[in-house]
Specification:
This protein is mostly helical and about 230 residues long. About 70% of the residues lie in helices and about 5% in strands. It has helices spanning about 10-35, 45-55, 55-70, 90-110, 115-135, 140-155, 160-175, 180-185, 190-205, 210-220, and strands at about 45, 75, 80-85. Strands 1-3-2 form a three-stranded antiparallel beta sheet.
């Protein structure tokens, strides 16, 4: 029997690796669902999704059960997972709640921008904004959703309310942007992506009214520009 050339990794390292893979798969599937790449009413098997992501069916199945608990998909016995459908009314309500919560919170960030730590964090978000822009340019909607969500939640976190950040992330995860891919292909994401840098500039300038107006406009894209195109 040949001995391995290197000792096996500690059990804890293996466990962390498995957990990280499950988290990565879960985030990728959630982003694919939000962006409309996984369509409502369609049934998807774990092996098929695993092949799409380049992983085995096991982490996909575990990740899909995470999405089941979030109400994003449902289990069909011996068939796979079906993406749940949301009404326009539900999606409108998600956007409305985001307006109520995120607009004043972002205004609070502008009001706190004279804090050196807040200002430094805002400047650091420029790199994230550039990453979002590159994902949009590459029409990589899964990565776009992941980076866009991180940008906005990191920005909101500067308001100092962790519960609000959790709610905002949950509302984003439950939303559906079925028209996003078509918008990207048409090159119409440039304007909304550019708004990220404008948000940073307005916050650093302490322009609360300006930032609040821009955030309201930005969230409005979810139910207009990014919504399902009329059939």
């Amino acid at each position: 029997m040949n001995l391995p050339s290197q000792p096996p990794p500690p059990l804890g390292a293996v466990t962390r690796r498995v957990e990280n893979l499950r988290l990565q798969v879960s985030e990728a599937l959630r982003a694919a669902l939000i962006s409309g790449q996984l369509r409502p009413g369609m049934v998807y098997s774990a092996p098929a999704l695993g092949e799409m992501l380049g992983v085995s069916a096991t982490p996909v199945r575990e990740a899909m059960f995470d999405l089941v608990r979030e109400g994003l998909v449902e289990v069909l016995r011996n068939k796979g997972f079906r993406v749940t459908e949301l009404s326009d009314r539900q999606l409108d309500q998600f956007a409305h709640v985001r307006l109520l919560l995120e607009v004043p919170a972002m205004g609070d960030v502008a009001a706190a921008s004279d804090d050196p730590e807040v200002a430094a964090t805002l400047e650091s978000l420029r790199e994230r904004a550039e990453q979002v822009a590159r994902a949009a340019h590459d029409e990589d909607m899964v990565r776009f959703i992941q980076l866009d969500t991180d940008f906005h939640t990191d920005f909101l976190a500067l308001a100092g309310n962790e519960e609000l950040v959790k709610i905002a992330r949950d509302l984003r995860n439950r939303s559906r942007l079925y028209g996003l891919e078509a918008v990207a292909k048409a090159g119409l994401l440039d304007q909304t992506v550019a708004e990220h840098s404008q948000m940073i500039d307005l916050a650093l300038a302490g322009d609360r009214p300006g930032l609040e107006a821009l955030v309201a406009q930005h969230i409005g894209h979810v139910r207009t520009l990014w919504a399902e195109p009329a059939k």
